[in-house]
Amino acid sequence: MVYAIVRAGGRQEKVSVGDTIVINRVTGEAGQSVDFTPVLLVDGDTVTSTKDDLAKVTVSAEKVEDLRGPKIRILKYKNKTGYKKRQGHRQELTRLKITGIA
């Protein structure tokens, strides 16, 4: 089984061909191709981690859709002062389908 560890959206994701991942928003239209350079590549028993060998490998993915994450509610409160502040946030995300590791 071939899989790679890629840095995407501020995190590292373990991917193999056919996987679907959700990362921070990537610009572009649905159906466009996105390429990543892997941090680590595992091909059966062979583990590739040197920078020179990884420069030759690319992980390609196809953008499926843009979406938004769950709502996170932030509440700030200070006792005895009457200070309350409520805020919400929804992270903008992109769903990708891994199409190839070459």
From TrEMBL:
- One GO BP: translation
Q: Does the keyword ATP-binding apply?
A: no
Q: Which UniProt keywords apply?
A: Ribonucleoprotein, Ribosomal protein, RNA-binding, rRNA-binding
Q: Name one GO cellular component term.
A: cytoplasm
One GO molecular-function entry: rRNA binding
**InterPro entries assigned:** bL21-like (IPR028909), bL21-like_sf (IPR036164), Ribosomal_bL21 (IPR001787), Ribosomal_bL21_CS (IPR018258)
Q: What NCBIfam families does the record point to?
A: L21
Which proteins does it associate with, and in what oligomeric form?
Answer: Part of the 50S ribosomal subunit. Contacts protein L20.
Family from the record: Belongs to the bacterial ribosomal protein bL21 family.
What is this protein's record name? Large ribosomal subunit protein bL21
Query: Which organism encodes this protein?
Result: Brachybacterium endophyticum
Q: Which gene encodes it?
A: rplU
